[in-house]
Design brief:
141 residues, alpha+beta, seven-stranded mixed β-sheet, 35% strand, globular
Amino acid sequence: MSEKQKQEAIKRMRLLQIMNSVITDFKNNGRIYYSERQSAMFPATLYWLDNKPEWVAMVKNFEKKNHALVYHAQLTHTQMGDLLSLLYVSNDELSWDEDRKWIVNEDGLMYSMVINLDDDTFSEVGTIQVRPAMGGVVRTA
């Protein structure tokens, strides 16, 4: 992870309207939070990712293999399994402006590493769509 990636992650967190205290904790301590949809009333409850050591290991593995920086995650419960979407900054600085434009102009569209926690064979990098909710994010597509 580079300092430039960290600053880019903070920019994206602000664009996604992630709670200021979550951004500060990431900036000062490197702590990653995840948003989990509990119900329609609680679409983006925030938790520390380090509450789940096995998820932290998955994040570190992804970051190392891809020279990426994960700044937030989103947990969705589906019929295909529980999906942990890792929001990240790549090391390709030339794509960052375009990535930020997608977040703003395409209603939260971004590349994400989606890990199927129930069946890893269905894990992949792809585009997802999120929107701000309760200081975190909720996945919409």
